């Protein structure tokens, strides 16, 4: 009789422990960072029909004029400007059964943080990515994904495995022009593949030689490429 009571107590203990773990995991997944306010970061509405003034009046002229001079220069990208460009795109965006909205980019000393809200069947989670752009000694650029979180739960390893599998399936499924910049960026983010950061602007070529991330701004040192 005493043994049966002990068994029952032991079963209840493990049941309560399993339940506690499930509750903790659920709380971690639903965690929302204190300084992230999706209500203020929603879709751009009517503004989504307009191109960002920061892109047309500041960033593009700064880049184009620097390239035309044919000398090394620094392209300064501001956090507020990048967020203005992003928010003027149409949101939310859907990928499969997941709806993404309220994106926000933060430039920090240890990397670039992207936060967004993911809605899965009516349940909302905050997904956070931290990306560290690294230029190696051989000049190749890798957009290294350092951290992936859902709420407060770190899922970096799992996310990388899934991303790599998705990328490989995409390669196997249909022909892809691996010379396209968008494909190179995707390969770097999803499959950890570095690429040569050389860009053609009309009849000129330039290379990103160094990337520095500071609080609220990103500085790209660009040099002309001869030939």
Entry summary:
The protein is of the alpha+beta class and 227 residues long. It contains five helices and ten strands; from the N terminus they run ααβαββββββααβββ. The protein has a six-stranded antiparallel β-sheet. A four-stranded antiparallel β-sheet has the order 1-10-9-8.
Task: Describe the overall structure.
By secondary structure, the protein is of the alpha+beta class. The chain has 2 domains: 1-30; 31-225, no CATH class. It is 37% helix and 35% strand. It has helices at 2-30, 53-69, 79-87, 156-173, 181-191; strands at 73-78, 93-95, 98-108, 111-120, 123-135, 141-150, 153-154, 198-201, 204-214, 217-225. Strand 8 and strand 9 form a beta hairpin. The termini are far apart. The mean pLDDT is 86.
Topology:
Elements: H1 2-30, H2 53-69, E1 73-78, H3 79-87, E2 93-95, E3 98-108, E4 111-120, E5 123-135, E6 141-150, E7 153-154, H4 156-173, H5 181-191, E8 198-201, E9 204-214, E10 217-225
Antiparallel strand pairs: 1-10, 2-3, 3-4, 4-5, 5-6, 6-7, 8-9, 9-10
- As a percent range, the share of strand residues is 25-35%
Q: Approximately how much helix is present in the residues?
A: 25-40%
Spatial gap, N to C terminus:
89 Å
Largest beta sheet, briefly?
6 strands, antiparallel
């Amino acid at each position: 009789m005493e043994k049966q009571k002990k068994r029952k107590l032991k079963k209840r203990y493990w049941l309560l422990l399993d339940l506690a773990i499930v509750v903790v995991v659920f709380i971690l997944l639903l965690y929302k960072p204190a300084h992230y306010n999706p209500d203020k970061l929603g879709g751009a509405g009517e503004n989504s029909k307009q191109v960002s003034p920061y892109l047309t009046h500041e960033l593009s002229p700064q880049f184009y004029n620097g390239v035309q001079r044919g000398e090394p220069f620094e392209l300064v990208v501001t956090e507020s400007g990048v967020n203005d460009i992003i928010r003027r795109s149409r949101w939310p965006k859907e990928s499969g059964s997941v709806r993404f909205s309220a994106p926000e980019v933060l430039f920090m000393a240890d990397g670039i943080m992207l936060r967004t809200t993911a809605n899965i069947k009516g349940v909302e989670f905050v997904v956070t990515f931290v990306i560290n752009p690294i230029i190696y000694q051989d000049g190749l650029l890798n957009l290294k994904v350092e951290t992936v979180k859902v709420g407060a739960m770190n899922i970096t390893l799992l996310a990388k495995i899934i991303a790599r599998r998705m990328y490989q399936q995409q390669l196997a499924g249909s022909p892809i022009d691996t010379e396209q910049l968008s494909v190179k960026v995707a390969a770097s983010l999803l499959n950890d593949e570095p690429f040569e950061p050389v860009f053609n602007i009309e009849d000129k070529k330039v290379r990103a030689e160094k990337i520095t991330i500071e609080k609220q701004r990103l500085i790209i040192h660009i040099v002309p490429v001869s030939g």
